[in-house]
Amino acid sequence: MLHPEWSYQAVIYEMNVRQLTREGTLRAAAAKLGFLRDMGIDAVWLMPVYPIGAEGRKGSLGSYYSIRDYCAVDPGLGTMGDFDAFVAEAHRLGMKVLLDWVANHTARDARWVGEKPADWYERDAAGAPAVPWDWTDTAKLNYANRDVWRAEADAMEFWVRRHAVDGFRCDMAMLVPVEFWNEAARRLRKVNPGLFLLAEAEEPYLFEAGAFDACYAWEMHHLMNDVAQQKVRVTALRDYIYADRNRYPQSAMRLVFTSNHDENSWNGSEFTRMGGAREIMAAFTFVVPRGLPLVYTGQEIGYDHSFAFFDRDPIPSYAANSFTDFYRRLAGLRHANPALAAGEAGGEMVEIRNNAEDCLMTFVREVKGNRVVAVMNLSPYAIHADYYTGIYAGMYTDAMTGVACELRGHVEEDMAPWSYRILTR
């Protein structure tokens, strides 16, 4: 499967509009797009912008994912004109906009609950719309009814055709029949052949008919947390990467991250979960095979906070700092090196054997004359590293410092806990 050209070396940003600015509006968020573009962001995934249901509402503002109307903008975020202005500004800056799509359920007081036949929803024993999982502010749609399929695709096309969105992040995609996604993708790509679809799921069958460009790498994320907390050693992460090669088509992209809205709000920030490993794990997401790296709201300025999910909890101050520069360097690394591309375009991981493989990963990704060497001490221990580079010896540039350096044939070096080097040529 061929993906949109922009996506192979892209860096994605998940925007929590409610918390990004003091105003919590699309208009205020649009003013941040230049900052993100300068940092190297290629596409902005907007958390849901639709009106939020009142029935069973959690907190003061409710969940973005309890949707009352698929074809409108929540008044608390602004107007449809503000949304269009946001997309126009992103496009002016050369950025793509992905809209969060929640196909599995609506709010309990959604327009469809009152306007559509009862069999548009799954029903409980009392005849009320069924509650999926423990999401008591939502109602489960009935995908046995093909009218639901058509209405969902109509609503998605509304945003592609009339409001120029470039793709969708599809919430809990595995809870909806894959045949729906395949059918909707074929329809939407007739409107926009470059449409990008990201599944919040990691079932391999999602790629069988080519609907999705990318899916989450949840398992890898949890392993990264476990390595950071030393519940497992880096060998578990290495084993995952090798097993992952055989689970998916070579073209499949995997969204990789140290944080997102779920992890941040329910399990804590990357500072809480990963501690001293936070930086190396972020760097790892930019060099891992097939990876499509994600930056979540606040990470670009090192904001160490777990956002309230159902209430206003805005970032108190926002300015470029060392964290911004860190992500700018990583984005530059990705953009400048085709070897790091996601999907089938990038280089596979070739390991350089070393003397401490329960702590240390030394590997190469290479394609069409471009080479990236990563030397990463993914442990809380000081390591005396010893390895032979063989054909990979030579002169390189350190991606994080810009300094030229030589990678000798036989390398011995002391590495501090959670330290790393990323070398390019």
What is the strand and helix layout of this fold?
Elements: E1 12-15, H1 17-20, H2 26-30, H3 33-39, E2 43-46, H4 80-92, E3 96-101, E4 105-107, H5 111-115, E5 138-140, H6 146-163, E6 167-170, H7 178-191, E7 196-199, E8 214-216, H8 218-228, H9 234-247, E9 253-256, H10 261-267, H11 270-274, H12 278-287, E10 291-296, H13 322-336, E11 349-351, E12 360-367, E13 370-377, E14 383-388, E15 394-398, E16 404-407, E17 410-415, E18 420-424
Parallel strand pairs: 1-2, 1-10, 2-3, 3-6, 6-7, 7-8, 8-9, 9-10
Antiparallel strand pairs: 4-5, 11-12, 12-13, 13-18, 14-17, 15-16, 15-18
Walk me through this protein's architecture.
This is Alpha-amylase. The protein contains 13 helices and 18 strands. Helix 6 (146-163) packs parallel to helix 7. The radius of gyration is 22 Å and the shape is globular. The chain is α/β, with parallel strands linked by helices. The protein has helices at residues 17-20, 26-30, 33-39, 80-92, 111-115, 146-163, 178-191, 218-228, 234-247, 261-267, 270-274, 278-287, 322-336; strands spanning 12-15, 43-46, 96-101, 105-107, 138-140, 167-170, 196-199, 214-216, 253-256, 291-296, 349-351, 360-367, 370-377, 383-388, 394-398, 404-407, 410-415, 420-424.
Structural class, by secondary structure, is: alpha/beta
**Count of distinct strands:** 18
Shape, principal axes of CA atoms: globular
Q: Alpha-carbon distance between the termini?
A: 29 Å
Query: Level of helix content?
Result: 25-40%
Mean pLDDT: 97
The unreliable regions are: none
Trace the largest sheet across and list its strands. Answer: 1-2-3-6-7-8-9-10
Number of helices: 13
How much of the polypeptide forms β-strand, as a percent range? 15-25%
Radius of gyration: 22 Å
Organism: Alistipes onderdonkii subsp. vulgaris
Protein name: Alpha-amylase
